[in-house]
Design brief:
Number of domains: 3
Mean pLDDT: 84
Largest sheet: 6 strands, mixed
Number of strands: 16
Structural class: alpha/beta
Radius of gyration: 24 Å
Number of helices: 11
Pfam family, one: MMR_HSR1_Xtn
Strand order of the largest sheet: 2-3-1-4-10-11
Shape: globular
Organism: Wallemia ichthyophaga (strain EXF-994 / CBS 113033)
GO molecular function: GTP binding; GTPase activity
CATH topology of the largest domain: Rossmann fold
Helix content: 25-40%
Low-confidence stretches: 45-56, 87-98
Strand content: 15-25%
CATH class of the largest domain: Alpha Beta
Distance between the termini: 72 Å
Keywords: GTP-binding, Nucleotide-binding
Order of helices and strands: HHEHEEHEHEEEHEHEEHEHEEHHEEE
Protein name: Ribosome-interacting GTPase 1
Length: about 375
């Protein structure tokens, strides 16, 4: 029996099974089996070769990468061409882009890699068209733009989300606050610090049994679902922020535009008329969590022309010093910072472990 048929059989059985205390264990097992078969379907065979494939394997450049995903002819290539100056062939028919087209845009002094991925189609996660390669590249991105046609945004949005979900990509989510620690004996011990309303203990045991984990300490610190538990056990999920670019707003009314703003994480734009793209760039910067730090040589004015750009989580004074030269941190006596991270408007003397914030000004004083 093919993997696709096994998946269909499990989905049919789940649809027939009524959820109650007597079926919790069985349903937990079915969900775990379903996830395993889907993983098998998406993992390339040894004969088929690994990796994204010719034209899809792109070297990472810049401080971060943004992948453009969408159905054919929604305006991805036009938007990228104008943002980066990179030519990505455009036309008013489907599947113009046949390989990943990389480009670079400079945002607030930071080089950002932009990847124009081929038009995705329904069934991508099952290997239809070039969908598998498209999604494989998107897993490596720091941010995903899902470009949608404003005339049919919600339907297309749902289809693309399901395709990405099926490939282990979780959009605008954080990893579940769960730990599963295997042990030699003692069975399954479950501890939760919050009430669990979406999962039963029997389902937890069923999932772990399907993954051949008979003994483990499970610590749950948020109200999780069975799917979230499977994500943690599988361990191969990626959690990527996403912005929905609702393109072609020049074709709709102001009243319709107001409705679009109610879609979470969305930015209505027109790539052809260049409407509202500034807002898109601002939100992109925020979601990439980049931090600009301006230098101020001792006794001189700050240099606002060439910021040092760092990533959130790696934006201490020490990271700043290493970004300039690896020897500077060893020679540093102290630093003075002005801006959001400073306690005083006239500046604050800080050490290597001080965490910097966007648009801070920093002066390094060496021994």
């Amino acid at each position: 029996m093919s993997t696709v048929q096994r998946i269909k059989d499990i989905e049919d059985e789940m649809a027939r099974t009524q959820k109650n205390k007597n079926t919790n264990y069985h349903l937990g097992q079915l969900k775990a089996k379903l996830s395993k078969y889907k993983k098998e379907l998406l993992t390339p065979s040894s004969s088929g070769g690994g990796g994204p494939g010719v034209g899809f394997d792109v070297a990472k450049t810049g401080l971060a990468s943004v992948g453009f995903i969408g159905f054919p002819s929604v305006g991805k290539s036009t938007l990228m061409s104008k943002l980066t100056g990179t030519h990505s062939e455009t036309a008013a028919y489907e599947f113009t882009t046949l390989t990943t087209v990389p480009g670079t845009m400079n945002v607030f002094g930071a080089p950002i890699q932009v990847l124009d991925l081929p038009g995705i189609i329904e069934g991508a996660k099952d290997g239809k068209g070039r969908g598998r390669q498209v999604i494989a590249v998107s897993r490596t991105c720091n941010l995903i733009f899902i470009v949608l046609d404003v005339l049919k945004p919600l339907n297309d949005k749902g289809v693309i989300e399901r395709e990405l979900e099926g490939f282990g990509i979780r959009l605008n989510q954080s990893p579940p606050n769960i730990s599963v620690k295997k042990k030699e004996k003692g069975g399954i011990a479950i501890t939760n610090t919050v009430p669990l309303t979406k999962i039963e203990p029997e389902e937890i045991k069923a999932v772990l049994s399907e993954y051949k984990i008979p003994n483990a300490d499970v610590m749950i610190r948020e109200d999780i679902s069975v799917d979230q538990l499977i994500d943690v056990v599988e361990g191969n999920r990626v959690y990527i922020p996403c912005i929905y670019c609702l393109n072609k707003i020049d074709a709709i009314s102001i009243e319709e535009l107001d409705l679009l703003y109610q879609i979470p994480n969305s930015v209505p734009i027109s790539s052809s008329q260049w409407l509202n793209v500034d807002e898109l760039i601002d939100i992109m910067w925020q979601r990439l969590q980049l931090v600009r730090v301006y230098t101020r040589p001792k006794g001189r004015a700050p240099d606002y022309t060439a910021p040092v750009v760092l990533r959130k989580g790696r934006c201490t004074v020490e990271h700043f010093a290493h970004a300039i030269h690896k020897e500077i941190a060893k020679q540093l006596k102290y630093a003075v910072v002005w801006g959001k991270s400073s306690k005083h408007p006239r500046g604050q003397k800080v050490g290597l472990d001080h965490i910097l914030e966007d648009e801070d000004v920093l002066c390094l004083v060496k021994h």
